[in-house]
Structures are given as structure tokens and as C-alpha cells.
Amino acid sequence: MFENIPEVKDGEVRPLLECQEIQLGYSTPSGWKPVVNRVDFEVRKGETVALVGESGSGKSTIAKALVKLIPLRGGSIRFDGKEVGNLSPVEFQPYRKKIQMIFQDPLKALNPRLKVSQLIEEPLRLHFPKLDRAKRVDELLQAVQLPVSSKDRFPSEFSGGQRQRILIARALAVEPELLVCDEPVSALDVTIQARLLELLESLKSSHGLTLLFISHDLAVVQQIADRVLVLQNGRRVEWKETGQLFKNPEHPYTRMLIDACPTW
Ligand SMILES: Nc1ncnc2c1ncn2[C@@H]1O[C@H](COP(=O)(O)OP(=O)(O)OP(=O)(O)O)[C@@H](O)[C@H]1O
């Protein structure tokens, strides 16, 4: 099955994530609602791939499937060469740590009753029980360029951009390989957005990360992505290296997205 995944040749960077003909959707009271239809893409190690498309095109649905928040209905998801799409939640456990997600609204993901130190220690306790957690919390706060004193405060005491950094520190705690970022900067103003994008860029090299970056903002995508997958109504309409996409958008939908972007 899915033998059309190309062999990796010598010197080529191996894909960390390979999605082949994935089909996703939701069970609703009125029946099965298909959302993502036979979509193919891959993310090479160290690369940033952006998923773009209008609201409702299926971007977050793909992200949810990658961390098994919803099941794969058809097709194949391979992580580091291994088929993970049809694993049970228990079988998927070893991979769950390697794929971390950050969301647009960190407040929803951070328990407001816990201090930052507790929020970051939580995944450490689970995955690295023998580690000196206090030391690691300090290191992770420094990695996301927050003062170490932040650890004694609560999420509500921070700005949106700072909360996003806390969420990133928490995600980094388990040493992921793939960071799935679902509209992580959409709620932030432009200056804060730019700083957070710079941070993600520097964490990529310092922590050996690969990024799948979901956004509807093409200005952001142009800044951060190596390749872009354009989704329309759950179908792939374009899949290209970023420079090429902006220079030579082939699909009318891509051209429409680019024309609709206020930066151009
Ligand atoms: N739990 C659910 N049950 C039923 N339908 C859902 C559910 N979650 C999402 N959908 C539908 O799936 C489609 C794709 O939604 P999705 O959130 O993946 O889009 P998106 O491209 O990420 O959009 P946005 O940019 O607005 O987040 C939409 O029609 C949405 O209404």
C-alpha cells in the first residue's frame, strides 16, 4: 500500500512526517462529515512546512489527526519512516511525545491555577521522572527568552506573546522532534508576531526541531516556511517551495489568497 512514497536517495533529507492520501472528518448527528480529502504532503527533518487556506479548509483537522485527537479515516501517516496512522492511542504513546502542538490561544491550554514552574514540570514529571526538574524549568524559560523569575507567576499575569512562550517552553520540555503550530501568532500584534517567529526560527536550530506551521496569514508564511501546502475545502490545490509559490502561484485559489493579503 502507498508504494508511491519515494525512496530517500543518498544525501537527501529524509522526511520526518509523510502524509499520503489522508482522509479525515467528523461524525455528526446527521452522519459522517468529510473534511480532508486524499491530501498528500511531507515534512523533511529540519524543514518548516506551512498549511494555508481559508477558515474551514481543514488545516486544524490535519493537525488534530497528527496527534490522534481524531482518527485517520483513510490513507497513511508515517512518522520517521514508521506507519502511525492506524496505531491505537496506547501504541501511539511513544510518538505522542515526539509530536507536540501549540495553539492560537495559550490560555485555553494552560491551567490558570498552576504556576509556570508547575506547568512546565508537569510533562517533565511524566516523561523524565529522574531529571532535576527545577534546573530544567530554568533552562526552558531561558530558551524561550523569558526571565527565570516567571516560574513563580500564573499564566494570567503574562501578555499573549509571553503566554505563547510559556506554551512553547512546555512543549519543548519533552524534547519533541515535530512542533505543530496551529495559528500560534494570529492573536498577536505584528511586532510581537515577528519576535515569536524569530524565536521559533532560532529554536529550530538550537533544539533540532521540524515545524508544521498552520496559518491563514500569507505574510507570516512567506517569512517562516520552506514549503507551502495550500488547502481549499479539504483538498490540496498547490504544494510548492515558498519562493516559487509567491512568484508563480498556479492555482486560482492560491492567487486569490495572495491577492487578498493586505501586504501585497
Ligand atoms: N468537532 C467537529 N465536528 C464537526 N465538524 C467539525 C468539527 N471540527 C471542525 N469541524 C468542521 O471541519 C471543517 C474544517 O475545520 P478546521 O477547523 O479543520 O478548518 P481550519 O482550516 O483550521 O479553519 P480555521 O482557520 O477557521 O481554524 C469546518 O467545516 C469545521 O466546521
UniProtKB/TrEMBL annotation:
The keyword Transport applies. It comes from the Bacteria. SUPFAM superfamilies: P-loop containing nucleoside triphosphate hydrolases (SSF52540). One of its GO terms (biological process) is transmembrane transport. Transmembrane segments: none annotated. Gene3D superfamilies: P-loop containing nucleotide triphosphate hydrolases (3.40.50.300). Signal peptide: none annotated. GO terms for molecular function: ATP binding; ATP hydrolysis activity. The keyword Transport applies. Keywords: ATP-binding, Nucleotide-binding, Transport. InterPro entries: AAA+_ATPase, ABC_transp_ATP-bind, ABC_transporter-like_ATP-bd, ABC_transporter-like_CS, Oligopep_ABC_C, P-loop_NTPase. Belongs to the ABC transporter superfamily. This is ABC transporter ATP-binding protein. It comes from Oceanipulchritudo coccoides.
